[in-house]
Description:
Blueprint: H1 28-33, E1 55-56, E2 59-60, H2 61-80, H3 85-105, H4 114-131, H5 133-152, H6 156-177, H7 179-184, H8 192-217, E3 221-223, E4 227-231, H9 232-254, H10 258-286, H11 301-326
Antiparallel strand pairs: 1-2, 3-4
Amino acid sequence: MSYLDPRAGQSAGDMTSEPEAWHADDRARPEHLGDVTEPEKRGPGKRRAGKPKGSRAGRNLPAAIAVGVSLILLVLASLLIWTPAFIGLIAVASGAGAWEMANALRKTGAKAPLIPLMAGAVVMSALTYYDGADSLVVGLAVTILAALVWRIADGFAAVRRDFTAILMVAIYVPFLLSFALLLQQPDADGDGRWRVLCTLFAVVLSDTGGYASGVFLGRHKMAPSISPGKTWEGFAGSICAAAIGSGLFLYFLLDIPVYWGLLFGAVMSVVAVVGDLAESMLKRDLGVKDMSNLLPGHGGVMDRLDSILFAVPTAYLLFAVIYANLS
């Protein structure tokens, strides 16, 4: 989900220059965006010890492909074959994401309680699916309250210390992700699953367009202190790809005029990039490269949800605006 600054034209002499400062999400970039890592310098007598085949920058490429394809098929099956399964998928992803976030935040000294937060993620998903947006807010409030009560056992000092971490985990993961269930809620036209797919397509197109334009055109870094691989040229490619693709998808799948689809895709691209930057900033501040190793070759669940978390609530609001103007 980064936009590369190509190293074309780098001379042999350049390879001896001092390497750039390490960033928390650097390791995740080379293997899925085509970066070329510089070879390790070998002193006299040092034996050549290559990395295992199929691994690039410490990643297992075959495992990454297998897991990626499996996730795509799982999402498509839950939406197109048996839509109630989608609630289970979101509940599992929310619970796993809450677990990863709570564990990562422990590096700051905060101890967000895992059990009430993971249980609250499941409750929020169920309430949202069966009773809509109002119940999602109730589920969020109950989750935060349960987590605070859980921490009272260690005293009010623990509550004060962990309050921010509890809010962050509960809102950032299960609350935002539950908007995917609001998008999928069935209506008279049965368009729920297509709304979710259009949103996911927009995010994928944004990533793909940013990658392609970053590789061939990327020169000006967008946020070097947060995510060194992103360029403004890649960002422009993201917006164009998502806008054009969404214009077509919304027209053919939802019968929405192309101009609304262009706007939808452009906004989706912006929020997807913001979500990716937010995750990169968080990992950089925590000093971690991945949120976990739950997904071989990919890192953690949160490493795959970073762009989607901001995209689904935005898509929910945009579709509300679009339908209001078309009615």
